[in-house]
Amino acid sequence: MVLTAHFVDDEWNMHKRIINFCPIASHTGKEIGKLIEQCLVEWKIEKVMCISVDNASANKVAIEWLVGKMLKWPNCQLLLEGKYMHVRCLAHIVNLIVKDGLKKLDKSVTSIRNAVRFVRSSPRRFDYFKKCVETEKLDNKGLVVMDVPTRWNSTYLMLESALKFRKAFDRMCEDEDNAYMSYFQEKEDVGLEYFDGVEGEGEVEKFRKGKVGVGPPTELDWECAQVFVSFLKVFYLVTLKVSASKHPTSHTAVHDMIAVESEIIKLLLPSNISFSPSPRSYVEGVLRNMGESMRAKYQKYFGSIGSINQLFVVALILDPRFKLRHFSHLLKKQLGCVEQEIEERSNEVRALMKELCDAYTQLAVGPQKNEKNKAKLL
Asked: I need a labelling partner for 199 at 20 to 30 A (CA). Which of 58, 112, 168, 366 fits?
């Protein structure tokens, strides 16, 4: 288990330090909570605002167990008694949403992956591919990269790089006496990969390293990949943004969540639905099914603004570019909330900000001077 601390020093500089890296005997919530508590005690860390974890059910139990223990500490300084300590990792949720959509394009993605694997499998094949690139007069900087099947962002980078060399792959198909076409008739090689499942539980998934008959990529496969890469760019940029550690990211979390939903909705617009037998219409139909699947997954985690940690909303409001009025605007224009819900949400956030102000006032001046100095700080 790895535990990374993010903190701000006295000069307002952000820092990131790995404070624990150790094996874990059991993945139960209680055992995870014990390891986190032990690490905090060893480092004498008493101020913890929140802990960001993935969506494994054991992590939720771990946070609840840890909060219960920390509240009993003599010098406990949990913010609002740890009510908002549990933060779901946004990058992990995006990963789950996209992986669910990738299942709809399994054939196209697998065929391109196999084509890339052929190129990267030996120096001789790689040189053959480079000759095709030169013949087609393509920019040979970067070339193609392999992906990790269980990490969608690496699949995005693989597809993006492969599309730049589509003509080179097509040229290899035109050569009758070459190993490229025969490569796709080789025996199937099945591997096992342990990964976090949809619900966050550990699962073992079979992925094929050379599916017989899947490939070379057809025109339809390239068309699917082209549209898919354009669609995934927003998800890729959001993942990069929320994974940053050298600057704050919490104030953009609400906007990132809305950007992801807007991109999914684009696949569900009536203009994308067509029943003609053209390849383009087929691609749009596949992408629409993918959008429906991703939309269902999105609703599970971000069904309403209340389903995310409200500290993200506070961070948005504290950004001087936005404030509370902007939050109300997002509720109305972007999330389609009615006036009553907008008022309720705004009042809830306003009350939370007052709670936070009171809590930080008490930490700053002490309980005895709290009431006297609260008005000045407000």
From this structure: 112
